[in-house]
Amino acid sequence: MAFAPAIRSLGRAGLFTLSVLRSSRPTKDFFAELVREIYKIGGRSLPIVAAGGAFVGLSVTLLGYRALETYGATSQVSALLGLGLYRELGPVLTALLFVGRAGSSIAAELGLMRATDQIKALELMAIDPIAKAVAPRFWAAVISVPLLTGFFCSLAITAGYLEAVHVIGVDSGTFWQTLKDSVDFADDFCVAFIKAAIFGGTSALVAAYVGFHAEPTIEGTSVATTRAVVNASLLVLMFNFVLSALLFRS
Amino acid sequence: MVLAQNKTRQCNIVQLPTLILHGRLEFDSPMPSPDSPAVRLSSTRLDRGGRTILRDIDLSVPRGSITAVLGPSGSGKSTLLAALTGELPPAAGTVEVFDRPVPLGTRHLLEMRKSIGVLLQGNGLLTDLTVAENVALPLRTHTKLPALLVERIVDFKLNAVGLLAARDAYPRELSGGMARRVALARALALDPPLMIYDEPLTGLDPIASGVIMSLIQRLNDTLGLTSIIVTHHVHETLPIADQAVVIANGGIVFSGTPAELENSADPLVRQFLRGEPDGPIAFDATPRTEAA
Amino acid sequence: MAVRGPRLEFAVGAFLLLALASLLVLAIASTNQKFGFGGSSYELTARFSNLGQLRPQAPVKIGGVVIGKVSKIVLDPVKFDSVVTLDINNEYKELPADTSAGIFTSGLLGENYIGLSPGGDPEVLKPGEEIAFTQPAVDLLQLVGKYMFSGGGKPAEGADAGADASTPPAAPPSSEEPAK
User: Fold this and answer.
1) What angle do CA B81, B192, B11 make, to 5 degrees?
2) CB atoms near residue B31 (< 10 Å)
């Protein structure tokens, strides 16, 4: 019995997702909104994702090298970096950075739209607010997060390369060859971007749901923003486990 | 101010989209007869959250008139509006707009909402769009007019509210009064026959208030609209109203012309008009068990 | 906050272009570039008495060049040796029928892979056929232990494990002493 409200709220979230998917129509206005949202949530998240990627690349290479020294396997440091990035760090960290930067802004914007009667105005003008405000943000996230993950990984690998080859002294040829040998295109590379797309869509849905249904007050907006970040982060980590278990074959 | 000065209810160029829309409507349903009231509520009861907010509401709004709905805060004025726009189905009785009951099904409700213009308290202007894009929004979504014509209509509407110069500004760059006028232009975009104003004077300085009130009256007369104004700014609204309705204690306590309102002997009405802190509506708050 | 029309579209276009370019570079520079998603390989099987550390997805090489991978490993419940299924790239359809397969270790501590040594038989192995000549994995630790403790002077014990490692492949089921 105690689970009833939780199940109902899960049901509401599911219905919300369905209505977002149903109201995504490829009209000219939709594409204009989509482009605008890609800029706002994808383009504006680029600095933090790029910086994060560079630092993660540096850390993993440094620590990985130290750990591998014990086994005399320092030539494998790029494999460690590459596999770690594509299998876990890339999609998950990018998604978490995205949730913090863009998820919170989606929740805040929708909460603000609710508080300033914009959503009500759309409804009274017989315009579907979900089609106008939520669907473009959802698709912008599904498109942007894999792209951001690509940036994250390239910066991490570049930073790792600079660290390993120019600071630590690993041989450049070994670095690239080991990397290429250990990363499988289908199993690691493609799976990483599929995961990223799923994480992006989930984060956007959670943030949009929370913001759209926020109390139409200033307090309601700030509560919504916090809840969006927390819930979206948790869901990303949960789905990461589920997807890894499903997709990781060996 | 450039406004079509045609005082009869024939078409003027500002009402072009309406012709196109009504031309379509003609096939859907017969045109309502010109003498019946624009809005009629009969023995309506409205509940929200399990509580009865309003009961035994009988209200008739004649076409082309301006009706002021007055009352203390929390008396249920916004609930009344919700019943008219279809957000709240009546618990008992009927709510009719242009001789047809307010529909419950989504498709018909959407159709009906296109013929009601609403000016909300928060303006509801979309922050990512310019003023012109905001006003164009209903036109682009609901009509198939070519872009150039949409531009012209937007210009007409903005001109009617005196804000043609602000067409490329964003809502955050506007003052409160200007934003309210843009919202008014947008509400008029499809030339709806019924306009509803929810607290239009909130947060406006005296000049801006005067501008809005003057616009409401002028547009109502020139375009042949029916207007319902929900407000507690009594003294600014009564001069332009044809009919005044006071809501308190869960029902209508007064209905008549503004002159009758001023001369009413009802203590509640007098307390409200004079703004007296104590009277039938007590100064001390009592624990609320039912809607006021 | 707002970026207007053409500048917005340019910014988004640049973002998308840059992202796709970086994805392309990543795919080429950091993966094994196995872009063919199945359908371009055929299967061969081989039986081994000892797999060592061989796992599915391990590479199959000829002379160091990867030509395929291990797709499946099952234990034969009747003969108790393992049947390994190899996915060989369709480019290499002409493997002679007397090709031998052995399990080797890449480097000293690396992963195990299957190395094929083609013979000279004009007949070729057809898809689904079994490789006749196999050589099981060498268990390095057992080998070292054997030589350390026997001092080279106990041929009886030495014969079995040693025979695994050094005799040329004979009949497929060699069920002498699975080392593990």
Assistant:
1) 150
2) 10
- B189 near B153, Cβ under 8 Å? yes
Nearest chain A CA: its distance from C39 CA (Å): 14
Structure ipTM: 0.82
Q: How far apart are CA A232 and CA A96, in angstroms?
A: 8
Question: C47 CB contacts (<8 Å, ≥6 apart)?
Answer: C76, C79, C81, C82, C83, C84, C130, C134, C172, C173
The full set of domain ranges for chain A reads 26-243
Question: Tens-digit pLDDT profile for chain C (180 aa)?
Answer: 455 677 888 888 888 889 989 999 888 888 877 666 555 788 888 888 888 888 887 888 888 888 888 888 898 888 888 899 988 888 888 888 888 898 888 776 677 888 888 888 888 888 888 888 888 887 777 778 888 877 654 444 444 444 444 444 444 444 444 444
Would the pTM of this model clear 0.90, i.e. be above it?
A: no
* Biggest CA pair distance of chain B: 59
Residue C4 burial (C-beta neighbours within 10 Å; 0-12, 13-18, 19+): exposed
For strands C65-75 and C59-62, give the pairing.
antiparallel
Q: Which of C152, C176, C144 is nearest to C49 (CA)?
A: C176
Out of C12, C29, C57, the one facing A38 most closely (by C-beta) is C12
Among C18, C31, C109, whose Cβ lies nearest the Cβ of A73? Answer: C109
Q: C57 — contact with chain A (CB < 8 Å)?
A: yes
Of the candidates A117, A120, A126, the beta carbon closest to that of B142 is on A126
Chain A residues with beta carbon closer than 8 angstroms to that of C20:
147, 150
A42 touches chain C (CB under 8 A): yes
CB–CB of B66/B240 below 8 Å?
yes
Nearest C-alpha neighbor of A119 from the set B133, B154, B127, B188: B127
Contact A159, A81 (CB under 8 A): no
Query: What is the distance in angstroms between the Cα of B50 and the nearest Cα belonging to chain A?
Result: 19
- CA distance, residue A46 to nearest chain C CA (Å): 9
Q: Do A29 and B121 touch (CB under 8 A)?
A: no
- CA-nearest residue to A118 within chain B is B124
Query: Best of B112, B126, B186 to disrupt the A interface by mutation (most A CBs within 10 Å)?
Result: B126
- Contact criterion met (CB < 8 Å) for C12 and A39: yes
